[in-house]
From TrEMBL:
Gene: LOC103494974
Domain Tyrosine-protein phosphatase, first and last residues per copy: 55-263
Coiled coil region boundaries: none
Biological classification of the source: Eukaryota, Viridiplantae, Streptophyta, Embryophyta, Tracheophyta
Annotated organism of origin: Cucumis melo
Record-linked PROSITE patterns: TYR_PHOSPHATASE_PTP
Name this protein carries in UniProt: Protein-tyrosine-phosphatase PTP1 isoform X2
Amino acid sequence: MAAADNSSSTSSSSSNPFIFSPDSPPTLALTPHQIKLCSQALEAFTDRLQKPDVINQEFARLQAKRITASDMRRSCSVALDNVNVNKNRYMDVLPFDETRVVLDSCKDYRPSARGYINASFISTSSSKSLSKFIATQGPLPHTYEDFWEMVFQYKCPAILMLTRLVDNYKMVKCGDYFQAEDGPRDFGNLIVVSKWIKSSNSSLILRHLEVNHKESEESVAVLHIQYPEWPDHGVPNDTLAVREMLKRLYHLPPDLGPIVVHCRYWKNRNILCNS
């Protein structure tokens, strides 16, 4: 894919001025301690693969702890409010009230909407540099503006998209909330500009986007990484593309905002957040 450059389309000052490069990320330099931990983890995984019964038992225990319908009504009350129901792609995949992302400036000004978007904060303790994520659904046409409001409000430096827009059977997998190759694209109060677009050797599509707010002089630089070959129900056959995504994320400054992860629904995005 040829690179597209619309860098002259805006003149806003960026609130996260990190420069995204379309070149391959530099090799990660691991310390001896990190190499030791990786070796121990690989050994543990290899050992576990020899015990499928144990894996099945662990999965069964997790399934038994799944939230019930009554628990969901109590824990996801904002998502189930009548004014927010149509903002959910699937009614069995909802954010908890306690960890949901709240929008300060929401296009739905009804008080009961409470700045709702189908998105949740996820924190991990495995890495200090990659400890903040927002897991969200593939945006719907009427939630595009909400999505970009979230990215702008929380100064999100990267978006990982683990799906394609349309499958081989012409079924829509995710709304087209980002393509702006022919110039700036308006989403209500937000303007999104494509700085460059590039395909990587590992089947990733990389985009450098800039998000501008019509009522602010600030802009947010965003690295959009699309992995269109990630399967709907499962995981990739190899780790090449996933490793490239993680390499690019590890080179982001740690003081930026949370990384957004989404696929068609929640399952795949949570797999990557916990990688």
